[in-house]
Protein backbone atom coordinates (compact mmCIF):
# COMPACT_ATOMS: atom_id res chain seq x y z
CA UNK A 1 0.00 0.00 0.00
CA UNK A 2 1.04 3.62 -0.40
CA UNK A 3 1.26 5.27 3.02
CA UNK A 4 2.26 8.66 4.35
CA UNK A 5 3.56 9.19 7.87
CA UNK A 6 3.16 12.78 9.05
CA UNK A 7 5.59 13.76 11.81
CA UNK A 8 8.91 11.93 11.90
CA UNK A 9 9.86 12.13 15.55
CA UNK A 10 10.25 9.05 17.67
CA UNK A 11 6.95 7.46 16.72
CA UNK A 12 6.78 8.60 13.09
CA UNK A 13 10.34 7.78 12.05
CA UNK A 14 9.97 4.29 13.52
CA UNK A 15 6.54 3.75 11.98
CA UNK A 16 7.66 4.95 8.54
CA UNK A 17 10.77 2.76 8.49
CA UNK A 18 8.94 -0.31 9.81
CA UNK A 19 6.00 0.04 7.40
CA UNK A 20 8.46 0.22 4.49
CA UNK A 21 10.24 -2.81 5.95
CA UNK A 22 6.92 -4.67 5.79
CA UNK A 23 6.77 -3.94 2.05
CA UNK A 24 4.62 -0.80 1.87
CA UNK A 25 5.57 2.27 -0.17
CA UNK A 26 6.05 5.03 2.40
CA UNK A 27 6.56 8.77 2.33
CA UNK A 28 7.50 10.38 5.64
CA UNK A 29 6.70 14.05 6.11
CA UNK A 30 8.06 16.56 8.56
CA UNK A 31 8.00 20.36 8.69
CA UNK A 32 11.60 20.25 10.00
CA UNK A 33 13.78 20.24 6.86
CA UNK A 34 16.91 19.25 8.81
CA UNK A 35 15.18 16.15 10.15
CA UNK A 36 13.98 15.22 6.66
CA UNK A 37 17.48 15.63 5.27
CA UNK A 38 18.97 13.51 8.03
CA UNK A 39 16.41 10.71 7.60
CA UNK A 40 16.82 10.74 3.80
CA UNK A 41 20.56 10.29 4.41
CA UNK A 42 19.86 7.26 6.63
CA UNK A 43 20.64 9.01 9.92
CA UNK A 44 18.22 8.63 12.84
CA UNK A 45 18.32 11.91 14.82
CA UNK A 46 17.89 10.15 18.21
CA UNK A 47 19.22 7.02 19.91
CA UNK A 48 17.16 3.90 19.22
CA UNK A 49 18.83 0.50 18.96
CA UNK A 50 18.15 -1.26 15.64
CA UNK A 51 16.32 1.64 13.99
CA UNK A 52 19.22 2.94 11.84
CA UNK A 53 19.54 -0.51 10.24
CA UNK A 54 15.81 -0.71 9.44
CA UNK A 55 15.83 2.87 8.09
CA UNK A 56 18.84 2.25 5.86
CA UNK A 57 17.38 -1.02 4.58
CA UNK A 58 14.08 0.69 3.77
CA UNK A 59 15.78 3.60 1.99
CA UNK A 60 17.92 1.20 -0.04
CA UNK A 61 14.81 -0.74 -1.09
CA UNK A 62 13.45 2.43 -2.70
CA UNK A 63 10.21 2.07 -0.75
CA UNK A 64 10.87 4.94 1.68
CA UNK A 65 11.56 8.63 1.28
CA UNK A 66 11.03 11.77 3.34
CA UNK A 67 9.68 15.16 2.31
CA UNK A 68 8.51 18.49 3.70
CA UNK A 69 5.72 18.77 1.12
CA UNK A 70 2.11 18.08 2.15
CA UNK A 71 1.14 18.28 -1.50
CA UNK A 72 3.54 15.46 -2.37
CA UNK A 73 2.33 13.30 0.55
CA UNK A 74 -1.33 13.88 -0.32
CA UNK A 75 -0.81 13.02 -3.98
CA UNK A 76 1.15 9.86 -3.11
CA UNK A 77 -0.62 8.06 -0.30
CA UNK A 78 -3.92 6.20 0.12
CA UNK A 79 -3.58 6.12 3.92
CA UNK A 80 -2.10 8.95 6.01
CA UNK A 81 -0.76 8.25 9.51
CA UNK A 82 -0.64 11.21 11.92
CA UNK A 83 2.37 10.75 14.20
CA UNK A 84 3.13 14.29 15.40
CA UNK A 85 3.98 15.10 19.02
CA UNK A 86 1.48 16.17 21.67
CA UNK A 87 3.69 17.67 24.40
CA UNK A 88 2.43 19.06 27.70
CA UNK A 89 1.28 22.69 27.79
CA UNK A 90 3.39 24.55 30.35
CA UNK A 91 0.63 26.31 32.24
CA UNK A 92 -1.83 23.40 32.54
CA UNK A 93 -1.32 19.68 32.41
CA UNK A 94 -3.25 19.52 29.14
CA UNK A 95 -1.87 18.29 25.82
CA UNK A 96 -0.64 20.85 23.32
CA UNK A 97 -2.38 19.99 20.05
CA UNK A 98 -0.65 22.64 17.93
CA UNK A 99 1.26 20.04 15.90
CA UNK A 100 -1.86 17.94 15.34
CA UNK A 101 -3.81 20.98 14.21
CA UNK A 102 -0.88 22.07 12.03
CA UNK A 103 -0.77 18.67 10.32
CA UNK A 104 -4.50 18.79 9.59
CA UNK A 105 -4.26 22.35 8.26
CA UNK A 106 -1.27 21.37 6.10
CA UNK A 107 -2.79 18.22 4.65
CA UNK A 108 -6.49 19.06 4.26
CA UNK A 109 -6.27 21.45 1.26
CA UNK A 110 -4.56 18.74 -0.82
CA UNK A 111 -7.04 15.94 -0.09
CA UNK A 112 -9.03 16.06 -3.30
CA UNK A 113 -10.05 12.38 -3.32
CA UNK A 114 -11.66 10.18 -0.64
CA UNK A 115 -8.89 8.96 1.66
CA UNK A 116 -8.17 7.57 5.12
CA UNK A 117 -6.36 9.54 7.85
CA UNK A 118 -5.25 7.41 10.80
CA UNK A 119 -4.21 9.11 14.04
CA UNK A 120 -1.45 7.48 16.07
CA UNK A 121 -0.48 10.45 18.27
CA UNK A 122 -1.59 10.32 21.91
CA UNK A 123 -4.50 12.78 22.08
CA UNK A 124 -7.25 13.80 24.48
CA UNK A 125 -10.40 11.75 23.95
CA UNK A 126 -12.68 13.51 21.47
CA UNK A 127 -9.86 14.73 19.22
CA UNK A 128 -10.46 12.17 16.45
CA UNK A 129 -14.05 13.30 15.93
CA UNK A 130 -12.97 16.93 15.97
CA UNK A 131 -10.37 16.18 13.29
CA UNK A 132 -12.96 14.36 11.18
CA UNK A 133 -15.11 17.50 11.33
CA UNK A 134 -12.10 19.69 10.48
CA UNK A 135 -11.22 17.61 7.41
CA UNK A 136 -14.86 17.57 6.29
CA UNK A 137 -14.85 21.38 6.44
CA UNK A 138 -11.40 22.08 4.99
CA UNK A 139 -10.62 19.29 2.48
CA UNK A 140 -11.90 19.42 -1.13
CA UNK A 141 -12.90 15.75 -0.63
CA UNK A 142 -15.08 16.89 2.31
CA UNK A 143 -16.67 14.04 4.22
CA UNK A 144 -14.78 11.66 1.91
CA UNK A 145 -11.88 12.01 4.34
CA UNK A 146 -12.37 9.12 6.75
CA UNK A 147 -10.66 9.40 10.16
CA UNK A 148 -9.58 6.40 12.24
CA UNK A 149 -7.53 6.13 15.45
CA UNK A 150 -4.80 3.55 15.93
CA UNK A 151 -2.88 4.26 19.15
CA UNK A 152 0.75 3.27 19.49
CA UNK A 153 2.21 1.36 22.44
CA UNK A 154 5.89 1.29 21.53
CA UNK A 155 8.53 1.69 24.21
CA UNK A 156 11.72 3.66 23.68
CA UNK A 157 14.63 1.27 23.39
CA UNK A 158 12.34 -1.41 21.89
CA UNK A 159 10.64 0.73 19.26
CA UNK A 160 11.36 -1.49 16.25
CA UNK A 161 10.31 -4.75 17.92
CA UNK A 162 7.22 -3.13 19.44
CA UNK A 163 6.19 -1.76 16.02
CA UNK A 164 6.78 -4.94 14.03
CA UNK A 165 5.55 -7.34 16.72
CA UNK A 166 3.09 -5.42 18.91
CA UNK A 167 1.22 -7.30 21.62
CA UNK A 168 -2.04 -5.94 20.20
CA UNK A 169 -3.43 -3.63 17.54
CA UNK A 170 -6.20 -1.24 18.49
CA UNK A 171 -8.19 0.45 15.74
CA UNK A 172 -10.98 2.92 16.28
CA UNK A 173 -13.09 3.31 13.13
CA UNK A 174 -16.44 4.63 11.98
CA UNK A 175 -16.58 2.74 8.64
CA UNK A 176 -15.94 -0.84 7.53
CA UNK A 177 -13.73 0.41 4.72
CA UNK A 178 -11.40 2.03 7.28
CA UNK A 179 -11.21 -1.24 9.18
CA UNK A 180 -10.49 -3.17 5.97
CA UNK A 181 -7.73 -0.76 4.94
CA UNK A 182 -6.07 -1.00 8.35
CA UNK A 183 -6.32 -4.79 8.26
CA UNK A 184 -4.53 -4.60 4.89
CA UNK A 185 -1.79 -2.31 6.27
CA UNK A 186 -1.16 -4.71 9.16
CA UNK A 187 -1.90 -7.94 7.25
CA UNK A 188 1.45 -9.58 8.06
CA UNK A 189 1.08 -8.96 11.77
CA UNK A 190 -2.50 -10.20 11.78
CA UNK A 191 -1.42 -13.34 9.89
CA UNK A 192 1.26 -13.85 12.56
CA UNK A 193 -1.46 -13.89 15.21
CA UNK A 194 -1.25 -10.36 16.68
CA UNK A 195 -4.65 -9.73 18.30
CA UNK A 196 -6.70 -6.80 16.99
CA UNK A 197 -9.32 -4.86 18.91
CA UNK A 198 -11.72 -2.97 16.64
CA UNK A 199 -13.68 -0.23 18.36
CA UNK A 200 -15.08 3.29 18.05
CA UNK A 201 -13.01 6.47 18.04
CA UNK A 202 -13.33 7.55 21.71
CA UNK A 203 -12.59 4.06 23.01
CA UNK A 204 -9.44 3.82 20.87
CA UNK A 205 -8.25 7.21 22.16
CA UNK A 206 -9.02 6.24 25.75
CA UNK A 207 -7.24 2.87 25.49
CA UNK A 208 -3.92 4.64 25.10
CA UNK A 209 -4.50 7.05 27.98
CA UNK A 210 -5.74 4.20 30.18
CA UNK A 211 -2.77 1.94 29.35
CA UNK A 212 -0.20 4.59 30.27
CA UNK A 213 -2.16 5.62 33.38
CA UNK A 214 -2.24 2.00 34.51
CA UNK A 215 1.50 1.51 33.96
CA UNK A 216 2.26 4.74 35.84
CA UNK A 217 -0.04 3.67 38.66
CA UNK A 218 1.68 0.30 38.92
CA UNK A 219 5.10 1.96 39.21
CA UNK A 220 3.86 4.48 41.78
CA UNK A 221 2.15 1.71 43.74
CA UNK A 222 5.44 -0.11 44.25
CA UNK A 223 7.21 3.17 45.04
CA UNK A 224 4.55 3.93 47.68
CA UNK A 225 5.31 0.49 49.12
CA UNK A 226 9.00 1.46 49.03
CA UNK A 227 8.21 4.45 51.25
CA UNK A 228 6.46 2.12 53.70
CA UNK A 229 9.35 -0.30 53.58
CA UNK A 230 11.72 2.52 54.45
CA UNK A 231 9.50 3.50 57.37
CA UNK A 232 9.39 -0.05 58.73
CA UNK A 233 12.70 -1.66 57.79
CA UNK A 234 11.03 -3.98 55.28
CA UNK A 235 12.46 -4.78 51.83
CA UNK A 236 10.56 -3.61 48.73
CA UNK A 237 12.43 -5.91 46.33
CA UNK A 238 11.32 -9.00 48.22
CA UNK A 239 7.83 -7.55 48.56
CA UNK A 240 7.61 -7.00 44.77
CA UNK A 241 8.84 -10.51 44.11
CA UNK A 242 6.32 -11.97 46.54
CA UNK A 243 3.25 -10.10 45.29
CA UNK A 244 4.41 -10.52 41.68
CA UNK A 245 4.06 -14.30 41.94
CA UNK A 246 0.32 -13.73 41.96
CA UNK A 247 -0.51 -13.82 38.26
CA UNK A 248 -3.30 -11.33 38.78
CA UNK A 249 -0.68 -8.81 39.93
CA UNK A 250 2.37 -9.83 37.85
CA UNK A 251 6.00 -8.89 38.49
CA UNK A 252 6.52 -6.52 35.54
CA UNK A 253 6.53 -2.75 36.19
CA UNK A 254 7.01 -3.36 39.90
CA UNK A 255 10.63 -2.23 39.86
CA UNK A 256 10.85 0.22 42.76
CA UNK A 257 13.27 3.10 42.55
CA UNK A 258 13.50 6.54 41.04
CA UNK A 259 10.18 6.25 39.22
CA UNK A 260 8.99 7.11 35.76
CA UNK A 261 9.99 9.91 33.42
CA UNK A 262 10.32 10.42 29.69
CA UNK A 263 8.16 11.99 27.03
CA UNK A 264 5.13 9.76 27.60
CA UNK A 265 3.99 8.54 31.03
CA UNK A 266 4.30 11.85 32.96
CA UNK A 267 2.67 14.07 30.35
CA UNK A 268 0.05 11.52 29.34
CA UNK A 269 -0.98 11.18 32.96
CA UNK A 270 -1.43 14.93 33.34
CA UNK A 271 -3.20 15.33 29.99
CA UNK A 272 -5.61 12.50 30.89
CA UNK A 273 -6.30 14.22 34.20
CA UNK A 274 -6.90 17.58 32.51
CA UNK A 275 -9.21 16.08 29.88
CA UNK A 276 -11.28 14.23 32.49
CA UNK A 277 -11.76 17.51 34.35
CA UNK A 278 -12.85 19.24 31.12
CA UNK A 279 -15.38 16.45 30.61
CA UNK A 280 -16.76 16.90 34.15
CA UNK A 281 -15.38 13.50 35.19
CA UNK A 282 -12.30 14.80 37.01
CA UNK A 283 -13.01 13.00 40.26
CA UNK A 284 -12.70 9.64 38.48
CA UNK A 285 -9.02 10.41 37.98
CA UNK A 286 -8.25 12.24 41.24
CA UNK A 287 -6.02 9.33 42.18
CA UNK A 288 -3.65 10.17 39.32
CA UNK A 289 -2.57 13.26 41.28
CA UNK A 290 -1.29 10.89 43.94
CA UNK A 291 0.38 8.72 41.31
CA UNK A 292 2.19 11.82 40.06
CA UNK A 293 3.06 13.00 43.59
CA UNK A 294 4.46 9.60 44.65
CA UNK A 295 6.56 9.64 41.49
CA UNK A 296 7.93 13.11 42.22
CA UNK A 297 8.73 12.04 45.79
CA UNK A 298 11.04 9.31 44.43
CA UNK A 299 13.28 12.17 43.32
CA UNK A 300 13.18 14.07 46.63
CA UNK A 301 13.69 10.82 48.59
CA UNK A 302 16.82 10.14 46.55
CA UNK A 303 18.20 13.61 47.27
CA UNK A 304 17.37 13.19 50.98
CA UNK A 305 19.14 9.81 51.02
CA UNK A 306 22.21 11.43 49.43
CA UNK A 307 22.33 14.13 52.10
CA UNK A 308 21.92 11.57 54.87
CA UNK A 309 24.63 9.34 53.46
CA UNK A 310 27.20 12.16 53.45
CA UNK A 311 26.24 13.23 56.96
CA UNK A 312 24.00 16.22 56.24
CA UNK A 313 25.79 18.64 53.93
CA UNK A 314 26.85 17.84 50.41
CA UNK A 315 28.24 21.33 49.75
CA UNK A 316 31.55 21.09 47.91
CA UNK A 317 31.53 17.30 47.71
CA UNK A 318 32.17 15.53 44.42
CA UNK A 319 29.19 13.45 43.34
CA UNK A 320 29.42 10.94 40.49
CA UNK A 321 26.05 10.66 38.75
CA UNK A 322 25.74 7.56 36.59
CA UNK A 323 22.95 8.08 34.07
CA UNK A 324 21.00 11.09 32.81
CA UNK A 325 18.48 9.51 30.41
CA UNK A 326 15.02 8.67 31.75
CA UNK A 327 15.81 5.01 31.10
CA UNK A 328 18.65 2.94 29.63
CA UNK A 329 19.13 2.52 25.85
CA UNK A 330 17.76 6.00 25.30
CA UNK A 331 19.19 9.51 24.92
CA UNK A 332 15.87 11.03 26.01
CA UNK A 333 16.09 13.37 29.00
CA UNK A 334 12.53 14.68 28.92
CA UNK A 335 11.22 14.73 32.50
CA UNK A 336 14.21 12.60 33.45
CA UNK A 337 14.25 11.66 37.15
CA UNK A 338 18.05 11.36 36.99
CA UNK A 339 18.49 14.94 35.78
CA UNK A 340 16.10 16.29 38.40
CA UNK A 341 18.11 14.62 41.15
CA UNK A 342 21.38 15.95 39.68
CA UNK A 343 19.89 19.46 39.47
CA UNK A 344 18.78 19.33 43.10
CA UNK A 345 22.23 18.18 44.27
CA UNK A 346 23.77 21.09 42.36
CA UNK A 347 21.40 23.39 44.24
CA UNK A 348 22.78 21.93 47.48
CA UNK A 349 26.29 22.92 46.41
CA UNK A 350 27.56 19.53 45.23
CA UNK A 351 30.13 19.28 42.48
CA UNK A 352 28.10 17.01 40.17
CA UNK A 353 29.89 15.00 37.48
CA UNK A 354 27.58 13.11 35.14
CA UNK A 355 28.21 10.30 32.71
CA UNK A 356 25.52 8.85 30.45
CA UNK A 357 26.48 6.57 27.55
CA UNK A 358 24.03 8.29 25.17
CA UNK A 359 22.34 11.27 26.79
CA UNK A 360 25.26 13.56 27.76
CA UNK A 361 24.64 15.95 24.88
CA UNK A 362 20.90 16.32 25.52
CA UNK A 363 21.43 16.51 29.28
CA UNK A 364 24.11 19.20 29.11
CA UNK A 365 21.66 21.50 27.33
CA UNK A 366 19.19 21.05 30.20
CA UNK A 367 21.76 21.20 33.02
CA UNK A 368 24.71 23.26 31.83
CA UNK A 369 26.00 23.80 35.39
CA UNK A 370 26.83 20.10 35.84
CA UNK A 371 30.07 18.55 34.63
CA UNK A 372 29.70 15.96 31.88
CA UNK A 373 32.36 13.34 31.18
CA UNK A 374 32.74 10.72 28.47
CA UNK A 375 33.44 7.68 30.62
CA UNK A 376 32.32 6.00 33.81
CA UNK A 377 35.92 6.06 35.06
CA UNK A 378 36.12 9.86 34.74
CA UNK A 379 32.84 10.24 36.61
CA UNK A 380 33.95 7.98 39.44
CA UNK A 381 37.44 9.45 39.90
CA UNK A 382 37.69 10.98 43.37
CA UNK A 383 33.94 10.83 44.05
CA UNK A 384 32.70 11.36 47.60
CA UNK A 385 29.38 9.77 46.68
CA UNK A 386 28.19 7.71 43.71
CA UNK A 387 24.58 7.75 42.48
CA UNK A 388 23.32 5.14 40.03
CA UNK A 389 20.29 6.88 38.51
CA UNK A 390 19.77 5.14 35.14
CA UNK A 391 20.32 1.41 34.92
CA UNK A 392 22.52 1.17 31.82
CA UNK A 393 23.94 -2.34 31.77
CA UNK A 394 27.54 -1.14 32.07
CA UNK A 395 26.61 0.51 35.39
CA UNK A 396 24.80 -2.59 36.63
CA UNK A 397 27.93 -4.61 35.81
CA UNK A 398 30.33 -2.39 37.78
CA UNK A 399 32.66 -4.30 40.07
CA UNK A 400 32.54 -2.89 43.63
CA UNK A 401 36.20 -3.70 44.36
CA UNK A 402 37.43 -1.94 41.20
CA UNK A 403 35.24 1.10 41.77
CA UNK A 404 36.47 1.25 45.39
CA UNK A 405 39.96 2.02 44.08
CA UNK A 406 38.67 4.93 41.99
CA UNK A 407 36.58 6.93 44.45
CA UNK A 408 37.35 9.03 47.51
CA UNK A 409 34.65 7.53 49.77
CA UNK A 410 32.83 4.21 49.54
CA UNK A 411 29.23 5.50 49.47
CA UNK A 412 26.70 4.67 46.79
CA UNK A 413 22.98 5.12 46.19
CA UNK A 414 21.36 2.54 43.94
CA UNK A 415 18.26 4.47 42.91
CA UNK A 416 17.16 1.76 40.45
CA UNK A 417 17.48 -1.26 42.72
CA UNK A 418 19.76 -3.12 40.33
CA UNK A 419 23.02 -3.68 42.23
CA UNK A 420 23.88 -6.76 44.28
CA UNK A 421 23.93 -4.84 47.56
CA UNK A 422 25.51 -7.58 49.66
CA UNK A 423 28.45 -7.78 47.23
CA UNK A 424 28.91 -4.00 47.44
CA UNK A 425 28.66 -4.01 51.25
CA UNK A 426 31.16 -6.88 51.44
CA UNK A 427 33.57 -4.83 49.33
CA UNK A 428 33.43 -2.14 52.02
CA UNK A 429 30.73 0.11 50.59
CA UNK A 430 27.87 1.74 52.41
CA UNK A 431 25.01 1.28 49.96
CA UNK A 432 21.53 2.78 50.09
CA UNK A 433 18.83 1.25 47.88
CA UNK A 434 15.45 3.01 47.62
CA UNK A 435 12.90 0.98 49.55
CA UNK A 436 15.54 -1.33 51.01
CA UNK A 437 17.44 0.92 53.38
CA UNK A 438 21.18 1.30 53.92
CA UNK A 439 23.73 -1.44 54.59
CA UNK A 440 27.48 -1.40 54.99
CA UNK A 441 30.09 -0.05 57.40
CA UNK A 442 28.55 3.38 58.09
CA UNK A 443 24.90 2.36 57.78
CA UNK A 444 22.63 3.52 60.60
CA UNK A 445 21.03 0.74 62.71
CA UNK A 446 17.90 -0.76 61.13
CA UNK A 447 14.47 0.05 62.47
CA UNK A 448 13.21 -2.11 65.29
C1 LIG B 1 5.78 4.10 27.71
C2 LIG B 1 4.90 2.84 27.66
O1 LIG B 1 5.55 1.76 28.32
C3 LIG B 1 4.62 2.44 26.21
O2 LIG B 1 3.75 1.32 26.17
C4 LIG B 1 3.97 3.63 25.49
O3 LIG B 1 3.73 3.33 24.12
C5 LIG B 1 4.91 4.82 25.57
O4 LIG B 1 5.15 5.15 26.96
C6 LIG B 1 4.25 5.97 24.87
O5 LIG B 1 3.23 6.45 25.34
O6 LIG B 1 4.68 6.31 23.76
P1 LIG B 1 8.40 4.55 27.48
O7 LIG B 1 8.11 5.97 27.82
O8 LIG B 1 9.34 4.25 26.36
O9 LIG B 1 7.03 3.76 27.14
O10 LIG B 1 9.04 3.93 28.79
P2 LIG B 1 8.73 2.73 29.81
O11 LIG B 1 9.54 1.56 29.45
O12 LIG B 1 7.29 2.55 30.01
O13 LIG B 1 9.36 3.35 31.14
C7 LIG B 1 8.85 4.58 31.65
C8 LIG B 1 9.57 4.97 32.90
O14 LIG B 1 9.16 4.13 33.98
C9 LIG B 1 11.09 4.90 32.86
O15 LIG B 1 11.59 6.09 33.45
C10 LIG B 1 11.41 3.68 33.69
O16 LIG B 1 12.65 3.80 34.32
C11 LIG B 1 10.28 3.69 34.70
N1 LIG B 1 9.96 2.37 35.28
C12 LIG B 1 9.48 1.37 34.49
C13 LIG B 1 10.08 2.16 36.65
O17 LIG B 1 10.50 3.06 37.39
N2 LIG B 1 9.75 0.93 37.17
C14 LIG B 1 9.29 -0.07 36.41
O18 LIG B 1 9.00 -1.16 36.97
C15 LIG B 1 9.16 0.14 35.03
Structural summary, described in words:
The protein has helices spanning 10-21, 33-40, 51-61, 70-76, 98-107, 127-138, 159-164, 176-185, 187-191, 201-232, 236-244, 265-278, 287-309, 337-347, 360-366, 376-380, 393-396, 400-404, 421-426; strands at residues 2-6, 25-29, 64-67, 79-82, 115-119, 145-149, 169-172, 196-199, 318-322, 351-355, 371-372, 385-388, 411-414, 430-433, 437-439. It has 448 residues and is α/β, with parallel strands linked by helices. It folds into three domains: 2-199, Rossmann fold (3-Layer(aba) Sandwich), CATH 3.40.50; 209-292, Orthogonal Bundle (N-(1-d-carboxylethyl)-l-norvaline Dehydrogenase, domain 2), CATH 1.10.1040.10; 296-439, Rossmann fold (3-Layer(aba) Sandwich), CATH 3.40.50.720. The strands form three sheets. A seven-stranded mixed β-sheet has the order 11-10-9-12-13-14-15. The chain has a six-stranded parallel β-sheet with strand order 3-2-1-4-5-6, with helices on both faces. α14 links the parallel β9 and β10 (351-355). α1 (10-21) packs across α3 (51-61) and α10 (201-232) runs parallel beside α13 (287-309). The longest helix is centred in the middle third of the chain and has 32 residues, at 201-232. The termini are far apart.
Amino acid sequence: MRLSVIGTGYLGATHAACMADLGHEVIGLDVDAAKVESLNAGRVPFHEPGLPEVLQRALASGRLRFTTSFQEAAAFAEVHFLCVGTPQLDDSGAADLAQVNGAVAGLAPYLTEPTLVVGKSTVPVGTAQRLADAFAAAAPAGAGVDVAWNPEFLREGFAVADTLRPDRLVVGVTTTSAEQKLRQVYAQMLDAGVPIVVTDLPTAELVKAAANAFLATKISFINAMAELCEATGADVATLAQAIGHDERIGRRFLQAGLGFGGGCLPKDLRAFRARATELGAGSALDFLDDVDAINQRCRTRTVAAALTLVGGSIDGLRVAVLGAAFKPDSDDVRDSPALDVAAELLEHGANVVIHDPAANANASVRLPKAGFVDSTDEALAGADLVLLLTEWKQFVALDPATVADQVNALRIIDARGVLDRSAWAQAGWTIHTLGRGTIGPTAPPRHA
